Fold this sequence. Notes:
Elements lengths: L29 H8 L6 E11 L3 E5 L6 E4 L5 E3 L10 E5 L2 E11 L11
Amino acid sequence: FGVDGRVGWSTVNTSQNGRVGPISYPYWKESFLQQPYGWSVLLWQGYAIGDFQITNAGRYSFQILSSKEFYVDGPENRFHGDWTEYGILYNIMSLDVGTHRIWVKLTSDIRQYGNTPDV
């Protein structure tokens, strides 16, 4: 549902505290798409994918807010995110020195009163 039938990649950076978001989608024409498709166009899923460097092998704590699940270095390393943003769920993982890849599941759904959460 991209503009002119096109979609692409964008780059976002973390803040100093490691947070990302909310992420804007400037080419997503939500109101235009709602005309023919209704509220169902607001239901979608995707992944934010990124690489990070580990310079010292060890155990690391991950906290992923507003996401149901995420993967580190492949689907065999699946973790649960802090979907409700209570700030109490941390995941611990042992990582070796090197580059690692993370996949964070993004989900947009319609709420009871028609608003969608920030992603």
